[in-house]
Write a structure and sequence with these properties.
10 helices, 63% helix, globular, 230 residues
Length: 230
């Protein structure tokens, strides 16, 4: 992967993420900072008094997408209360670093409304599987892994969890991980191509790091192949 590109994997509720970002910023000395946000999510993080989507949002997002947003937001907030860090604070740090140092800031994630609309199109079989798994979860006798939510998950744990989601819920995996990996990787790749001498620091959730690296390598290889052929 191009040495001018540095990816920082974070956890949205882990105080450790901020230390990791500051360290990467000081070491890499970027000209451009990319964050895993879109305009709507950034505005939501900046405006603390902004209300959550009301019932009317169901028409725009679909019921499943609306439910996903509500449950996801509620869960992250509760976990954030435990760790002492509000969800998305590490992304705001990236924004602050860009503004404070007068660097270019790029929002590289897909619009959240598009993602949630796609989630509402989850096949019925997969929706039923999710509901069944939620019902069965309290009765599972499998040994649970102890996770310190104040720290960024280990790479092997993230890989294992991502693989399980891909196998168990292939459509959900495609929408919330795979498609967004491709979108973010393409934006980073184009930024690098348009600004070949500038250093890019991309702040991204740990679960996306491996996939984005794979996509960046593929984009670089495809570009090399195209140049050779022409």
């Amino acid at each position: 992967m191009n040495p001018n590109i540095k990816l920082v994997g974070t956890s949205h509720i882990s105080p450790e993420s901020k230390k990791k970002i500051n360290s990467a910023f000081n070491e890499h000395k970027p000209d451009i900072i990319c964050v895993e946000l879109d305009k709507q999510r950034l505005q939501g993080l900046i405006d603390k008094n902004r209300k959550r989507p009301g019932i009317k949002a169901i028409k725009q997002l679909g019921f499943t997408g609306y439910l996903f947003a509500i449950i996801g937001g509620y869960t992250q907030k509760k976990l954030g209360n435990i760790t002492g860090m509000a969800p998305g604070e590490e992304m705001l740090l990236g924004v602050t670093l860009a503004q404070r140092n007068k660097l270019r800031l790029e929002l590289i994630d897909q619009e959240i409304t598009k993602t949630l609309k796609k989630i509402s199109k989850t096949p019925i079989k997969e929706k039923l599987k999710i509901i069944l798994d939620i019902i069965k979860a309290p009765f599972q006798k499998k040994q649970r892994m102890k996770i310190d939510i104040s720290k960024i998950p280990e790479e092997e744990f993230v890989k294992k969890l991502t693989k399980q989601v891909k196998e168990r819920y292939p459509y959900i995996y495609k929408v919330i991980i795979d498609e967004r990996n491709k979108i973010m990787a393409k934006k980073i790749f184009l930024l690098q191509r348009q600004n070949p001498t500038q250093r890019i620091l991309a702040i991204i959730g740990e679960g996306h790091i491996e996939g984005i690296i794979e996509q960046l390598k593929k984009l670089e290889q495809d570009n090399i192949t195209y140049i050779k052929q022409n």
